[in-house]
Write a structure and sequence with these properties.
This protein has 306 residues and is an alpha+beta fold. It has 9 helices and 14 strands. The radius of gyration is 19 Å and the shape is globular. The relative contact order is 0.18.
Length: 306
């Protein structure tokens, strides 16, 4: 496979697209620095813009892997263990909530904090469920929240959004600045960030055949607010493969809790054990307009994103 080779899918793929009622699909594959993109359909069906690897889209909850990386970087800089309790860095009103005592950064990153999937005080719209959710809303909810106490795995957008917020508090920088400082600039990503880039061709998201706006996630942006391109995402995954001896990369890849016989959770990332004993490091994402997935085959170092 030649570097950055683009390959339209065969005509038979239209049967799949029509059956699934989706306008377009793109898959990127990388092994040993050699890339291939396979795609079909439209990035925008109204204008007829075809799907291409350099188009920006919402990556949804894959954002959580960015949050885990940058929070670990911030904690390393401040010499704070991620097993430490995070409550001391929250406002006084939240620190009075004894139910949060002892909850750690790690528990936010591996979904064992006991926090619910979403806070109950979201007040967004049907198309923008997180719209207007502020730091004050988040802290207000946390003043009286009662997490589960058994530390079992329970996937939480709230917990990972709080992890992103804590990275901002500790560093005294915005989440967008942290993403740029620790990921975008070091990896030389050209089209990744919280805001859609108006200079790029943008994929339109669709739900039930209707165009949907990109989410604005407010204080929970660390749970799913990043936009990127297939090209940038392969660069991101290649970085992880090529730097597994880096202390932070090694940390975020290390399993922390067994969910079941085939699934374990690291920090944001999940490990899946296949029937043939191969292991896949993966995360998926979903907004009202996009469904995404990225994975790394630990045996062959093949990375895949779609």
């Amino acid at each position: 496979v030649s570097q950055s080779r683009y390959s339209p899918l065969q005509d038979s793929s239209w049967t799949v697209l029509n059956a699934m009622k989706i306008p377009g699909i793109i898959v990127g594959i990388s092994q040993n620095g050699q890339r291939k993109f396979i795609y079909s359909g439209y990035a925008d069906k109204e204008s007829g813009l075809p799907m291409q690897p350099d188009q920006q889209l919402e990556i949804g909850s894959i954002t959580k892997t960015f949050t885990a990386y940058l929070l670990c970087k911030v904690l390393q800089y401040h010499r704070i263990s991620d097993t430490s309790s995070f409550i001391r860095w929250l406002p006084d009103s939240v620190q009075k909530n004894a139910n949060l005592m002892g909850k750690s950064f790690l528990q936010l990153l591996n979904h064992t904090s006991g926090l619910s999937r979403l806070p109950s005080n979201l007040r967004g719209t049907r198309e923008q469920p997180y719209a207007g959710y502020s730091e004050q809303d988040l802290y207000g909810y946390l003043t009286s929240v009662k997490p589960n106490r058994d530390s079992t795995y329970d996937y939480s957008n709230l917990g990972m959004g709080l992890a992103g917020q804590l990275a901002c508090v500790l560093s005294q920088q915005s989440y967008a600045t942290l993403v740029d400082r620790y990921i975008v600039r070091p990896l030389k990503l050209t089209s990744t960030g919280l805001e859609a880039n108006p200079k790029l061709p943008i994929c339109t998201g669709y739900m039930n055949g209707r165009a949907t706006p990109y989410w604005q996630m407010g204080a929970l942006q660390g749970a799913g607010g990043i936009k990127s391109t297939p090209v940038d995402m392969l660069t991101y995954l290649e970085f992880i493969v090529e730097n597994q001896d880096d202390p932070i990369v090694k940390t975020i890849m290390t399993p922390t809790k067994k969910v079941n016989e085939t699934l374990s959770i690291a920090r944001a990332w999940h490990w899946l054990l296949l029937p043939d004993q191969q292991k896949i490091l993966w995360h998926n994402g979903g907004t009202y307009g996009f469904s995404t997935f990225c994975g790394i085959n630990s045996a062959s170092n093949i990375v895949t994103g779609k």
